[in-house]
Amino acid sequence: MTDIFAKRLSPVMQTMTGFGPRPLYQAVEARDGEALVEGRRVVMTACNDYLGLSGDPRVAVAAAAAVKRYGTSCSGSRLIGGTLPLHEELERRVAAFLGREAAIVTTTGCQANLALTPLFGRGDVVFSDMANHASLVDAVRAGWADSRRYRHCDMRHLERQLAGAGADAAKVIITDGLFSVEGDLCRLPEIADLARRHGSRLVVDGAHDIGLMGAGGRGVAEHFGLMDAVDLYTGTFSKCFGSIGGFVAGPAEVIHFLRYTSRSVIFTASMPPASVAAALAALEITVAEPERRTRAFEVARQVKSGLGALGFDTGASATPIVPVHIGPTELCGRMWQEVLDEGVFTSVVVTPAVPESQALIRLSLQAVHTDDHINRILDAFAAAGRRLGLIPAAPPAVPS
Ligand code: PMP
């Protein structure tokens, strides 16, 4: 007899023990670009609080006021009993911010993506970038449409797939706006052009870029001047907006349809009052304080150029997500620990998310990182990288 637990657990546990459990599920107390890790204060680069709003007192005051007025939970689904006037206000504000007719807010960003499933019916074709977020992958899997996955940002591959799909099939292209591992952008101008030429709808998951990119913080579409080319946006309040929750924004009829058909909306409790109020306050600050975006990009630019000068490979990112390519998973684990010992908490991307030999350390840089934080990050990578022989030794000091 085969035991289902033993059968499923053993391959996964082998992968994890090869790496050591520490970077994963490490408890941290993070705020304002720093974290307390096992009693030590370190620079925090492992959360996606790009604009530093999760520690903003104005956001905290709004959340506390909502708890006082509405309690800690709605204890019900949006459909029945779990909709506050505050949810409706957030939906109006998100729609207005992105210049859409309507929006629906969901309990997490993952659930916003899962809410798309009812759109994917039999005979339809969904085209997805292979590097799309897991929740977009799951949204497509749970539907009935044919799924075609094109190689990451490979526009020729996408074009071939579109051409092969048959003129009559209803089509939709789905892509992350800013990809969360490499920090690169989707090639929206080409994707929008292909969507138009092949009669396809276009959905962009702006989880990482809405709030962060574009002069007004409206994401990659604003960055490329293509707001109107996107049919539906999904996004999250857990990164730039210092809260938790997600949204889908687009034509009123589509949003209305999703309200009554999306299982991830109907069969789960709604965003708690404090999270809705925090998201509303953060949205206002995001619009009013564009300098936060400028600072996050400036921090990233300095870190990236400093790491490059030391001899690290930071890929093609031009955003506050900076990957540092290390190589084998085991070496990446050692580098993570050495960098932490030097006072910087980072995140790792390892197999199965990337091939075994392509593990990387990922830095999320924030508007609240100071010049001192930048220096500490670069010093930590220099010392750790030299100890492990990943970068050349420091040039000898010139005698004065
Ligand atoms: N989409 C993308 C591209 C993401 O990176 C994430 C979060 N990692 C999500 C959606 C899900 O967001 P949330 O954490 O709010 O569920």
From TrEMBL:
InterPro entries: Aminotransferase_I/II_large (IPR004839), AON_synthase_class-II (IPR050087), PyrdxlP-dep_Trfase (IPR015424), PyrdxlP-dep_Trfase_major (IPR015421), PyrdxlP-dep_Trfase_small (IPR015422). SUPFAM superfamilies: PLP-dependent transferases. The keyword Transferase applies. This is 8-amino-7-oxononanoate synthase. Residues 47-381 form the Aminotransferase class I/classII large domain. Its cofactor is pyridoxal 5'-phosphate. It comes from the Bacteria. It comes from Streptomyces olivochromogenes. It catalyses: 6-carboxyhexanoyl-[ACP] + L-alanine + H(+) = (8S)-8-amino-7-oxononanoate + holo-[ACP] + CO2. Its EC number is 2.3.1.47. Signal peptide: none annotated. It is an enzyme of class 2 (transferase). It holds the Pfam family Aminotran_1_2. Keywords: Ligase, Transferase. GO terms for molecular function: 8-amino-7-oxononanoate synthase activity; ligase activity; pyridoxal phosphate binding.
